[in-house]
Amino acid sequence: MSCYNYPELLDNRASKSIAYASFGSFNFSQTKPNAKILSQEDINNIKKIRNIKKCIIGGINKINIKNLYRLKFDMIAISSALFLCKNTQESANFFVRNFQKLS
After folding, report:
1. Total domains in the fold of the chain
2. 40 in a domain, yes or no?
3. pLDDT tens for residues 6-45?
4. Residue 39: which domain range?
5. Domain membership flag for residue 12
6. Within a domain: residue 1?
7. What ranges in the chain are assigned the alpha helix state H?
8. Whose CA, among 7, 38, 39, 76, lies 20 to 30 Å from 64?
């Protein structure tokens, strides 16, 4: 379920019937350039959600992935940083190495 920047969209009924909820945009995103960027308050509210896995999306790249270490989301979605780069395999390997650091 895509919740954008609004954890309140995730009510008790929805959280029992979905596998995860995504939140974002973490940073400016080429995929959705008009998306609102998560504030620290948004992130704090999202982290309070306990009954479902959480995915952070939007504008995640090789530079700002380091900022995700402290947030401890269950999942991270990456698209433009993989598909709009010169070498997809090299970029994928970079993210795999960094995801291993997160776990």
Report:
1. 1
2. yes
3. 788 877 666 678 889 999 999 998 888 899 999 999 999 9
4. 7-102
5. yes
6. no
7. 12-17, 40-47, 80-83, 88-102
8. 7
What are the tokens at 98?
Answer: 């960094």
Q: Which residue has the tokens 């970029």?
A: 91
CATH number at residue 80: 3.20.20.70
Which residue(s) pair with 75 in the sheet? Answer: 55
Nearest CA to 82 out of 23, 26, 30, 21 is that of 30
The verdict on residue 85 lying in a domain is yes
Separation in Å, CA 46 to CA 6, 39, 92 = 8, 11, 27
**Is the pTM here over 0.85, yes or no?**
no
Residue pLDDT, tens place only, 69-78: 788 898 999 9
Q: List the structure tokens of 78.
A: 């990456």
Q: Tokens at residue 80, please?
A: 């433009």
